[in-house]
Specification:
The complex is a heterodimer. By secondary structure, chain A is an all-beta fold. Chain A has no helices and eleven strands. In chain A, strands 2, 4, 5, 6, 9, 10 and 11 form a seven-stranded mixed sheet that branches. Classes of the chains: A mainly beta, B mainly beta. Chain A binds chain B through residues 31, 33, 40-45, 48, 50, 58, 88, 90, 92, 94, 96, 99-107, and chain B through 4, 33, 35, 37, 43-47, 50, 52, 91, 93, 95, 105-107, 109-112.
Chain lengths: 113, 119
């Protein structure tokens, strides 16, 4: 099993450009999440999807959109990138029952210039 | 509002010694779950240990144990017999309470503690 995979691993964008971060999981998990990690701030939830067909905002959703394409895939889109969106982005997935520990992808390091 | 506080930005420990990483939390809910994750320099987040608020015993997983003191709202991670490979950032997290009460699957993270194990 690959677990949670993310593409790309690194990306540099100019201000105003758009891009989509891809995430897929092969653990048959119902719930998926997108976080951003900034120095000194821990991980903050951008959007999550409790199950296929549903999405909801997290703590820092502004400037982002998401699509739960199917049970496996959850993408994050930046429509008009800003320097404040320079960060490391993590996708995660979990069961919707039990202790719900989240399994994380390797992250995408995004720089917006 | 729920909050996780990790007051130690960085810690040093000698190899083979035990170390305690502090975590305090704030919640008004009676039912909650606490997690610890490890983030090595390679960047991935690795789940270490979980404690439920109604669990009577402190959680243990190999060399990791969670010192859960409910009245003090603390959930400290204890790593016994530290190894060089334990050098990493460690995050404490709590399951967020939903609008109508009850735990959600969303996690609230602390700011982390960077642990350096010295030979």
């Amino acid at each position: 099993n690959a677990g949670v995979t993310q593409t790309p691993k690194f990306q540099v964008l100019k201000t105003g450009q758009s891009m989509t971060l891809q995430c897929a999981q092969d653990m048959n998990h119902n719930s998926m999440y997108w976080y951003r990690q900034d120095p000194g701030m821990g991980l903050r939830l951008i959007y999550y999807s409790a199950s296929e067909g549903t999405t909801d905002k997290g703590e820092v959703p502004n400037g982002y959109n998401v699509s739960r394409l199917n049970k496996r895939e959850f993408s994050l889109r930046l429509e008009s990138a800003a320097p404040s969106q320079t960060s490391v982005y993590f996708c995660a997935s979990s069961e919707s029952r039990g202790i719900n520990e989240q399994y994380f992808g390797p992250g995408t390091r995004l720089t917006v210039t | 509002a729920q909050k996780i506080t990790q007051t130690q930005p960085g810690m040093f420990v000698q190899e083979k010694e035990a170390v305690t990483l502090d975590c305090t939390y704030d919640t008004s809910d009676q039912s909650y779950g606490l997690f610890w994750y490890k983030q090595p320099s390679s960047g991935e987040m690795i789940f270490l240990i979980y404690q439920g608020s109604y669990d009577e015993q402190n959680a243990t997983e190999g060399r990791y144990s969670l010192n859960f003191q409910k009245a003090r709202k603390s959930a400290n991670l204890v790593i016994s017999a530290s190894q060089l490979g334990d050098s990493a950032m460690y995050f404490c997290a709590m399951r967020e309470v939903g609008f109508y009460g009850g735990a959600t699957n969303k996690l609230i993270f602390g700011t982390g503690t960077l642990l350096a194990v010295q030979p």
